[in-house]
Amino acid sequence: MENKYNKAKDILKRYKQEHILKYLDNLDEERKKQLISQILKIDFEELKELYEKTFDNLYVDLEELEPISGVNPDRLSKEELEKYEKIGTEIIKNNKFAVCTMAGGQGTRLRISRC
């Protein structure tokens, strides 16, 4: 356990995440093991690269923006809804999804009661 703790500590220090260690003192032994195990499984280098990529190409030409098309689920048949759910499920299973945040009542149109 001590060896894994030291390895996790080194990783967190390397990636400036050692603040996570302060939570270990408040955990029982089983939860400490779980947290250390989770830390050792995280690919911090990939996270760092992904974070750094968020700053690439920050410029957006507003003239090039176009509205996205949407579908009103209340106007779809049961079969069409099932078809779209299958497509969505496959996309998620293959880790090929994105997140889009909308404002202006889109939550209601997408049948989301709380945003």
Protein architecture, described:
By secondary structure, the chain is mainly α. The chain has 5 helices and no strands. It has helices at about 1-15, 30-40, 45-55, 80-95, 105-110. The radius of gyration is 22 Å and the shape is elongated.
Q: What structural class do the secondary elements suggest? A: mainly alpha
Beta-strand segment tally: 0
> Whole-number radius of gyration?
22 Å
Largest sheet, in brief, is:
none
* Secondary-structure element order, N to C: HHHHH
The best one-word shape is elongated
Per DSSP, what share of the residues sits in E-state strands of 2 or more residues?
Answer: under 5%
Tell me roughly what share of residues is in helical segments.
40-55%
How confident overall, as mean pLDDT?
A: 83
Kindly, what is the distance between the CA atoms of the first and last residues, rounded to a whole number of angstroms? 41 Å
Residue ranges: pLDDT <50 for 5 or more in a row?
none
In DSSP terms, counting alpha (H) and pi (I) runs of 4 or more, how many helices?
5
Number of domains: 2
